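Lecture notes, part 5. Sequence design as translation. It can be helpful to think of inverse folding as translation between two languages: the language of shapes and the language of residues. The source text, in structure tokens, appears below.
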């Protein structure tokens, strides 16, 4: 199993990561304000700030534009492929496994 596999147990907050990628696959941008007030926003999701550097380091997102200190990130092709793999992984889980992933990551 590769490090980029959606089933990888080392991926932090797997459920929230999948929800973030799902929102971005629907066309929502991840917005980061800065540099003086580092805040991040994506469709009201709570774990964006925690997972931002992780998904950036894996090249699942890339900055598409920047205006007045506000940076807009979109899924890369690699991120889109990883999201599709993650959706397949999620749909293959039992309801109990889904519950465990939601509760403990």
């Amino acid at each position: 199993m590769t490090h980029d596999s959606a089933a990888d147990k080392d991926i932090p907050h797997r459920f929230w990561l999948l929800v973030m990628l799902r929102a971005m696959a629907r066309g929502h941008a991840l917005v980061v304000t800065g540099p003086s007030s580092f805040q991040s926003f994506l469709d009201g999701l709570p774990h964006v700030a925690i997972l931002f550097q992780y998904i950036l380091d894996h090249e699942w997102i890339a900055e598409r534009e920047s205006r007045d200190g506000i940076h807009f990130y979109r899924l890369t092709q690699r991120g889109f492929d990883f999201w599709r793999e993650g959706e397949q992984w999620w749909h293959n889980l039992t309801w109990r496994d889904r519950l465990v992933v939601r509760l403990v990551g």
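The translated text above is only one of many valid answers, since several sequences can fold into similar shapes. The mean pLDDT is 84.
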